[in-house]
Design brief:
mainly alpha; 67% helix; Arc Repressor Mutant, subunit A; 202 residues; 11 helices; single chain; 3 domains
Length: 202
């Protein structure tokens, strides 16, 4: 027979249960989230909806009413500048590019956050201007070089003798990251890391 639950056990269980949704709760949760993360309007909307759906499992919840509360918060925070899809897209595009993500991946990740297509393209144009990249291909090449160096692909492999054996694997790694065959081939077949880095100036 299991031992009886203590008062602290019951209190902990009660704390773990989602709270009943109210306008005040959504506002507090929303401001807490915005204080920790930059976000898009659609992603913020989904964050709040997840709280509603969790609460609906244990509390009676009027989802139509919650929808009105959520939309009111989104509109208010957009008007106040706390949520700005353009600024978010610009910053996210820069961050993803610095980590070695190509344009196709950046587009996909921004779209997943609910960013509109024209805002995504504007963010990529801004990124090209910041990077002084004359073409999308130059942006992808820079990102691919970053990723290859980070993952020690091609000329960055610690043991040069393994390069030939791992050529296909390294090409595939760059392809999975969204880079085209030509960029992957030029990097993987570069004679050295220095020669690979010099590709950006060709």
């Amino acid at each position: 027979m299991p031992p009886p639950k203590s008062a602290s056990d019951n209190a902990a269980k009660k704390r773990r249960q989602p709270r009943k949704i109210s306008p005040g709760y959504l506002e507090r949760a929303g401001l807490y989230y915005l204080g920790r993360y930059a976000t898009s309007a659609e992603n913020f909307r989904q964050v709040l909806w997840r709280k509603v759906w969790r609460a609906a499992r244990v509390h009676e919840t009027d989802e139509a009413q919650c929808a009105g509360w959520i939309e009111a918060l989104v509109e208010r925070y957009v008007a106040a500048g706390l949520i700005d899809d353009r600024s978010y897209a610009d910053a996210r595009a820069r961050s993803l590019h610095r980590r070695g993500n190509g344009l196709r991946v950046i587009r996909g990740k921004l779209a997943q956050k609910g960013i509109a297509g024209d805002v995504i393209e504007a963010a990529l144009e801004a990124l090209a201007g910041e990077e002084a990249a004359a073409s999308p291909g130059a942006l992808d090449l820079r990102a691919a070089l970053t990723l290859a160096a980070k993952r020690r692909l091609g000329p960055w492999r610690r043991d040069p003798l393994t390069r030939a054996d791992n050529r296909a694997r390294d090409m595939a790694a760059l392809a999975r990251a969204g880079f085209g065959y030509d960029i992957a081939r030029r990097i993987v077949e570069a004679e050295s890391a220095e020669a690979a880095e010099a590709l950006i100036h060709e």
